[in-house]
Write a structure and sequence with these properties.
alpha+beta, 5-stranded mixed beta sheet, 7 strands, 33% helix, Mopterin_synth/thiamin_S_b
């Protein structure tokens, strides 16, 4: 079991700051994203509408990155400036 932090519009879509995710670790970020999208359709919609960013231990990572037990994982939409 791991907790995934949600930020900005993802937090609003799900209605909570963290998700408790039951997934076997280690796993790739891609598998984690798919697992969460299967359980939370609002995140699946967000993923299909924008490039979802994932940070592991406060570093942006790609889909191939391995998530290990004890890692801090956060999902957030791309940041735009003005």
């Amino acid at each position: 079991m791991m907790n995934v932090l949600l930020f900005a519009s993802l937090r609003e879509a799900v209605g909570q700051e963290t998700l408790a995710v039951d997934i076997a670790l280690p796993c790739r970020v891609e598998a984690l994203k798919q697992h969460i999208a299967d359980q939370h359709p609002s995140i699946a919609t967000a993923q299909s509408n924008q490039a979802l960013l994932v940070a592991v231990n406060q570093m942006i990572v790609g889909n191939e990155h391995q998530v290990e037990e004890g890692d801090e994982v956060a999902f957030f939409p791309p940041v735009t400036g003005g």
